[in-house]
């Protein structure tokens, strides 16, 4: 097993972690302002409060297709597929054909 790297009293201002596995990472006594976190995030605790359910509820509200994608009902999955395909921009070859027809 790989040992944990510890950063103590380090200035990581403006640091970017991209495609990193931070499973089990702990940020204790940190200052974090204007931070952005995006990825597969589960069991996230912020200042002692588990916030994953809240974040998931907001994302489901803002993107209702997420609920359909998790469904086991084939009709819901078909509807999710229809919505996702409708939202996708056309491929470049389709754009060329449609602009040539105009």
UniProtKB/TrEMBL annotation:
Alphabetized InterPro entries for the sequence: 5peptide_repeat
Region of interest: Disordered: 80-102
Superkingdom to which the source organism belongs: Bacteria
Listed name of the protein: Pentapeptide repeat-containing protein
Native source species: Amycolatopsis marina
